[in-house]
Amino acid sequence: MExxxxxxxxxxxxxxxxxWDHEPATVRFVxxxxxxxxxxxxxxxxxxxxxMYEKGMLLRTESGKTHYYTTEIKAPK
Length: 77
Hints:
By secondary structure, the chain is an alpha+beta fold. It has 3 helices and 2 strands.
């Protein structure tokens, strides 16, 4: 992935942190992890991850009806 000038939002960073620790992961798994920390709707998590995929921040693979996401951005050191 090419370097970009934009920075991930706070919400995107929260999702990236879950994925860096647990990838590949489903939207349900990411949502469950985020929900343990704060109130967030499943559809909000789903839409955010779809947008991140469209931006090239995430990769998505399908296994049946399940989508698994991995990061395209490296974790900070």
